[in-house]
Amino acid sequence: MNLFVGVIFIYLIGLNGVLTSRVLELSDKFIDISSDGVWFVKFYAPWCAHCRRMEPIWAHVAQALYNTPIKVAKVDCTRFSAVATHFKVRAYPTIMFIKGEFRHEYSGERVEDEMVNYAMRMAQPAVQKVSHADSLGYLKETHSVFFGYIGKQQGPLWELFAIHAEKYQAHSWFYALSHEIAKSNLKPPNETAVFVYKEEEVFYFQPTNELIQNKDNLNVTLNKWINSERFGFFPKITRSNINDLMDTEKYIVIAVVSENKLQEITQTERDFKDMIENIIRNRKHELHHRFQFGWMGNPELANSIAMSELTVPHLIVLNSTTSHHHIPDDDPVLMTPEAVSMFLDSIHNQMAPTYGGNSLLVRMYRGFFEARTTLINMWRGNPVLTALVFGLPLGFLSLICYSICCADILDADEDETPDTHEKKD
Average per-residue pLDDT in the chain? Predict the structure, then answer.
């Protein structure tokens, strides 16, 4: 048994070495060769805790992309500061996709699947052509969300589609196909159309004839539509994508739960999360134009929005245009799907109570709330270090004040001393 365990241990060590070896170590010479080929680079510092935690994930990314033209690498910016300066690295770790003169900084979730999909997208042309009807089935199986252009590749709609494909390439997939290929599977409404495939559903961009004639207005409308439709029906909401969700100009319906370090939640939280997800899936054609549903595994982010301590599970609806938020009066755990639907209808009809906003007083209170929350979390995590961080400056300030006050008292005593001697004489 001990021999078997030893063999497994040696195998794991060897596997870890293989994964690590897939990551290329770069030096100052990278500045000269960066324009050759396709690179996915992590700029890091050895003292950075986030960089160290990301090391095994980056090794798995390199392994997943090993048989592709994408070279996965890393560079120590403390040793090769010229590289950090050349690529304008301001924080660690910074992950950058480099293809010739093109550079794009990755801002998504730092998990293997997200980073691999991002690199694969960025290595391809912004718009990829679909030449066989069978390929549509493959795309549906491999992509939960993708955009498509149907028709001849000419005219203002095609030109704008290609422009926005480059703009949003980091976030989604874009394809072009003929009407012949699309007509049986997708049933397009016109010879020329733009659509989004979203989790087994197809939604079409439907501009009016007047809009098509005005290219500037068409550009603005298409941009808003792509930005609002590029998310799934029920994505996970984090600090890295919440600002993008705010740009959708929809109501953001958030199921708030609390994940542990293993990304697990309680059964009560799971039941609540599933109930909210089923609402959008059952009423997606009715709701998805006005509401963007999602879930949040970090209550601290939801608390920052609500500026109060929310119990979990909880429900919060964020107005992305005004920054107001809505919270149900009832206990979310006791709410039924019908009650949640009535709550959403009251929000859409502007009958639900609103909280928060973006006024000066609200921003000041939010800053105070976040500062207090940060201090409390620091104290809970390491009270000794927190006491040192805040106690030492206060101690020095007290010494300075004391020395100033004592100096005034001593000066006063010295001024009074000659008068005392004169009286004695």
Answer: 86
In the predicted model, is pLDDT for residue 270 greater than 90? yes
The secondary structure of 195-209, three-state, reads: EEEECCEEEEECCCH
Q: Note if the pTM is more than 0.85.
A: no
Specify the length of the chain in residues.
Answer: 425
- Structural contact between residues 258 and 318, judged by C-beta atoms closer than 8 angstroms: no
DSSP of 264-325, one letter per residue? ---HHHHHHHHHHHHHHHHSHHHHTTTEEEEEES-HHHHHHHHTS---SSEEEEEETTT-EE
The residues, ordered by sequence, that sit 6+ positions from 185 with a Cβ below 8 Å of its Cβ are: 133, 136
Under 8 Å between Cβ of 274 and 255: no
Cα-based distances in Å from 331 to 136, 272, 327, 335, 336: 44, 12, 10, 7, 10
- At position 285, the amino acid (one-letter code) is H
- Residue 162 contacts residue 210 (beta carbons within 8 Å): no
Report the pLDDT averaged over residues 146-170: 94
> What SS3 state is found at 58?
helix
Q: Which residue pairs from 264-272 have beta carbons closer than 8 angstroms and sit at least 24 positions apart in sequence?
A: 265/297, 268/313, 268/333, 269/312, 269/313, 272/313, 272/332, 272/333
Beta strands in 21-163 (DSSP E): 24-25, 38-44, 70-76, 94-99, 102-105, 128-129, 145-150
Task: Give the other-Cβ count within 10 Å of 208's Cβ.
Answer: 11
| Contacts by 350-355, CB closer than 8 A, 24 or more apart | 352/326, 353/326, 353/329, 354/319, 354/324, 354/325, 354/326, 355/306, 355/324, 355/325, 355/326, 355/327
| DSSP one-letter code for 103 | E
The angle that helices 383-424 and 360-381 make with each other, rounded to 10 degrees, is: 100
CB 306 within 8 A of CB 313: no
The residue with tokens 């009423």 is 283
> What DSSP assignment string belongs to 156-180?
HHHHHHHHHHHHTTTT-EEEEE-HH
Mean pLDDT of 7-36: 68
